[in-house]
Design goal:
With 422 residues, this protein is an alpha/beta fold. It has two domains: 24-141 and 308-346, Periplasmic binding protein-like II (D-Maltodextrin-Binding Protein, domain 2, 3-Layer(aba) Sandwich), CATH 3.40.190; 143-306 and 356-367, 3-Layer(aba) Sandwich (D-Maltodextrin-Binding Protein, domain 2). It is 37% helix and 14% strand. It has 16 helices and 14 strands. The protein has a four-stranded mixed β-sheet with strand order 9-10-8-11. The chain has a three-stranded antiparallel β-sheet with strand order 3-13-6, covered by helices on one side. Strands 7-12-14 form a three-stranded mixed β-sheet, with no helix packed on it. Helix 1 (4-14) packs parallel to helix 4 (80-89). The longest helix has 21 residues, at 401-421. It is globular. InterPro entries: Bact_solute-bd_prot1 (IPR050490), SBP (IPR006059). This is ABC transporter substrate-binding protein. Keywords: Cell membrane, Lipoprotein, Membrane, Palmitate, Signal. It comes from Paenibacillus borealis.
Length: 422
Amino acid sequence: MRTMLLLLLLLSAGCDSSGSKPAVPATPAADHEQQSLSGSILMLTNRIDLIENGTMQGYADQFMKKYPEASVEFEGLSNYATDIMVRLSTKDAGDVLLLPVNLPARELDYFFEPLSAEMSAGEKFTTFAAYDGRRYGLSTGTTTSGIVYNKKAFKQAGITEIPQTLDEFYAICAKLKQADITPIYMNYGAVWPLREWGNNMVNYMTGNPDYLNNMVHENAPWQLDNEWGRLLGITRTIIARGYAEDELFSNNWEISKTKLAKGEAGMFLSGNWTVRQILDAGAAPEDIGFFPFPYDNGLKHYAPLNPDWFIGVSKFSRNKELSMSWVNFLVHETSYTAEGFLPLDGNTEPSMEQYREFLSYQPELVEATVQTDSFIDMANRAKLSFASGDYIQELIAAPDLQKAFDGLNEKWEEARALSDAK
């Protein structure tokens, strides 16, 4: 996989002198300018499901009613966090795309057009996708993470109560396994879902949303007796006891959704956006539930409150005005931001029963803070892709977790030394 270093080298070779001038934030076209917008734009997205089921094309059709001479095409990336960095390095990132989470804020202007104040008014997560007073992306939803489960599978296994502690969670896994149901589908082979079992959970299970950011002050953040050790201990226990899927090394993301929908699998640990996809895979709404993950035996548990991906316009787009209008339309005039997400307005009651169930267990919600450039730089120097999940896969499979942690700590300490030397 290409690293951020390669990305920056390509940038330094490929940016022209005009790229250093302050960009004027673009504004989407007004209604009276509709007829003047024309051409074709390409949007890159991780929502392959919305492309395949025609939802994205439906939004494009609505857009073309406003702009008859315009068209929008879509390309889905199955491993978006990794693939998009390669595409950006070659300036082949379409016209509209989701902003990479592992891109330092100071580099946003190299790749994205700044948005107008009018376009970004009302943005909830104001510290994300922004730098030096300019905003480069709009949030597409608000997410939390927890256990998505099949109620019929629970009933078949004789499970009558939702687990409130880690021991109770292990107990229902055992019951599901005994009933010949895959207790929890980790999607180990798909890799990216493992982020939930790594940095995503570590960053909220202490109640401190800056846990990852604060790792830049440590030489050896991976320890058996801290959050990393406890969390990896859970994942390794699940696999060791046979509670995860049998086909660990196969990328069965799409298949796994059908298995959960049918009750052949009992649970996922994932974001709330998964609920809609399980329903689209054939589950009846009344058969799917959602509860906070009990990562320890305490009485109180935290759950994250995160922005989903931010969407913006490529610096290299040849039709920036049309692209801006599409972003504005998609976020503000369609149901795209409601496709499996919590309401952007925190005062609004969630529309889906599964979200109301989740909140009924009264988890303490921890609102995310943006990853600092210092953390992203450190991760890049250590060659650790926190956005992809592959290092979590390696930690789960490691014969000796302490030795695997020692290897990560060595890389991290070297990265810190390089940082201090600058």
